Amino acid sequence: MQFQYVAKDADGRRQEGILECPDQQAAARTLQEQGCFVLSVRPVRATREQFDWGQVWYALRPLAPRTMAVFFRMLESCLHAGLTVFDSLRRIQVDLSDARLRSLVDDLAEQASQGRPLAEGLTRHAKYFPNHVRELTRVGEQNGCLEAMVGEIARAYERDDRLSRSLRWPIGFLLVSVLPLPVFWQAFNYFEYLAAFWITPERMPAYSGSPWAAAWDMWLRKDGLVCVALTVLILLAVVVARIVLRYPGRITWRDALSLRLPLWGPLARGCAQVRFVRTFWAAYHAGQPYAEAFAMGAAATANAAFDARLQPQVAAVRAGTRVADALRQANLLPRELVGGIAQGEDTGRLEESLQRAVEYLERDQDDTIRAALARSWVLAIFYGLAGGAAASVHLFQQYFGWVFDFTEHLFD
Predict the structure, then answer these.
(1) How many Å apart are CA 37 and CA 5, to the nearest integer?
(2) How many DSSP H helices and E strands does the chain contain?
(3) Does the residue 95 lie in any domain?
(4) Which residue has the higher pLDDT, 274 or 54?
(5) How many C-alpha atoms does 14 have within 13 Å on its Cβ side?
(6) pLDDT (tens digit, 9 = 90+) per residue, 77-96?
(7) Which of 143, 150, 145 has its CA nearest to residue 108?
């Protein structure tokens, strides 16, 4: 938790700043240990996040999870080989193919050459490196386990990459099954005009040139402008939707809606659960107090609605509430999973129970992805059959309408 302080140092000079401490008393003790006379210490008020137009461009062209996973895997390998952070970043920079990531790594290496922590360099580029990445890096540097924390970050990005690649198929199936229908419909209208110019030119307006050009001109006048306007609106809607979905800042209504959507909801919930429990476990495994590890896990969900449910429990855990009781109150994890965490807490094996919870949630998310993929196949087949049936009925009525007329005349 952050606290804003005002104090005087040993020379009587006024000092102001922000401290990261578990509570207000700990912040005051930290200042006193530094030889300062404390004037005031108060929590930093949470301010409404300002919309950053610079992040809109990033939302249109984000760094892919696969790119980030490769970067952190390379960093883990270099650290495992005994290289310093600066040497690791310089060596990685040569092998990166993404120009933006190369520029980021160059700045990180420059910061490292000045003796600044890697977490501080990541904070300078917060839109590229989420909060849980920065926090895990900070924990790794403070506890001497940076290599392990970087490995956890790489593993999380690899899982995000598998999730995004799996979602391409459902989205692709739905687009392929739905989008061809209006295209086919407009193509049919054009050929209907063409057939009229060929078969019954005396009923059509006078034209000069080929029937193809005349049919095209008629289609533009009757249907073309509407189609162009709808196409522009659809493209704008796609761009706005991409910005809203990829915007790295907090958008509470977006995140709350994502948890309720039919196909995406279970995936978004599972992803937030995995991020929370994995970050909680990784920070606790690295030596952080369980209350601080719990707070870091809550900040790592990348879902504002999920985070809003967890923040009251963060304060409760810091006040002494058991982790399992806080999780039951939040009601964001399966009951059997919370029961396992409670048993680990009672037997002094919280770390092991958290690790088993991570494995359970990851398996559950894999099952959810497979179920979403199967549902998308069903939807694609349904839309394809429905669209084909509607088009067939329209074609039959258009070209074989005389059958209906003959049948109606026969039974009159």
Answers:
(1) 11
(2) 19, 3
(3) yes
(4) 274
(5) 4
(6) 999 999 999 999 999 998 88
(7) 150
Write the CB contacts of 197 (distance below 8 Å, at least 6 apart in sequence): 204, 207, 211, 214, 215
Are 93 and 117 in the same domain?
yes
CATH at residue 299: 1.20.81.30
Same domain, 351 and 400: yes
Other beta carbons within 10 Å of 256:
14
Least-confidence region, from 190-199, 303-312, 347-356, 361-370: 190-199
Residues 276 and 222 in one domain: no
Lowest mean pLDDT among 100-109, 113-122, 235-244, 374-383: 374-383
What is the rounded average pLDDT of the residues 262-283? 85
Residue range 283-321, pLDDT digits in tens: 888 888 888 889 888 878 878 888 888 888 888 888 888
Assess contact for 212 and 29: CB atoms under 8 A: no
State the pLDDT at residue 49: 47
Match 């061809």 to its residue by tokens: 180
Q: Is residue 172 part of a domain?
A: no
Q: What are φ and ψ of residue 293, in 5° steps?
A: -65, -40
Domain of residue 408 covers 263-412
118 and 187 co-located in one domain: no
**CA atoms within 13 A of residue 99's CA, in its CB half-sphere:** 1
> Is 376:263 a contact under the CB 8 Å cutoff?
yes
User: Where do runs of H (alpha helix) occur along 114-258?
Assistant: 118-123, 131-143, 146-178, 180-199, 211-219, 225-246, 252-258
Residues 368 and 289 reside in one and the same domain: yes
* Band of residue 165 on the pLDDT scale cut at 50, 70, 90: confident
d(CA 263, CA 144): 41
Are 232 and 282 contained in the same domain?
no
At residue 175, the pLDDT reads 67
Q: What is the pLDDT of residue 212?
A: 77
294 in the same domain as 237: no
On whether the pTM is more than 0.70, the answer is: no
Give the SS3 label for residue 297: helix
Residue 345: both structure tokens together:
């807490």
Say which residues have a Cβ less than 8 Å from residue 145's Cβ, sequence separation at least 6.
139, 286, 287
Instruction: Assess whether 314 and 402 both reside in one domain.
Output: yes
Number of domains observed in the structure of the chain? 4
